[in-house]
Amino acid sequence: MKTEKEKMLAGEAYIAVGRKGEELFKERQFAKELLFQFNNLPPSEIRERNEILKKLLGKTGKNFYFEPPFRCDYGYNIEIGRNFYSNYNMTVLDCASVKIGDNVMLGPNVQLYTAGHPIHHEKRNELWEYAKPIKIGNNVWIGGNTVINPDVTIGDNVVIGAGSVVTRNIPANVIAFGNPCKVYREIT
């Protein structure tokens, strides 16, 4: 029989709280401890902050910078490429994989949500949830206050306008924005 963590990582329905979700609860607590350290270091201690992120995240590329505060569920499901920048208040619900390519910039208050909950209240009240991955390509700029929902892929060379809610895949080489986020035009 699979553990709740194995179910979560396989994209199956799982329970993340209570006795069934004890392993996941402990892992979230571990991430919160590291994030507390990260978010409370003096601004000058960039090297120390980056060392904490290397312990927390699944993969880090060369040259990355996160403006504190930063929040995530587990950390180990997040991979970032080279030359990554995140402005203040990045939140990642990383119950599934979050893969971010090279040369990606995120504005303030960007939120990446891999977690989802059942539509039917009976299952939701039983604390079931599920997670679907997010993938962000290379050379992407995501404007502030953008929300990216589960099971979304954003192609290479994309600009997402501020305040967007991305609910569907965005192809490469476009400018997209809105709620819901839609392609406005190709980048020429």
Automatic annotation (TrEMBL):
Keyword annotations of the record: Acyltransferase, Repeat, Transferase
EC number(s) per entry: 2.3.1.-
Pfam families the UniProt entry points to: Hexapep (PF00132), Mac (PF12464)
PROSITE patterns documented for this protein: HEXAPEP_TRANSFERASES
Source organism, top-level taxon: Bacteria
Any one Gene Ontology molecular-function term assigned to this protein's record: galactoside O-acetyltransferase activity
CDD domains: LbH_MAT_GAT
InterPro entries according to UniProt: Hexapep, Hexapep_transf_CS, LacA-like, Mac_dom, Trimer_LpxA-like_sf
Gene3D superfamilies, A to Z: Hexapeptide repeat proteins (2.160.10.10)
Family: Belongs to the transferase hexapeptide repeat family.
Full protein name: Acetyltransferase
Source organism (scientific name): Christiangramia flava JLT2011
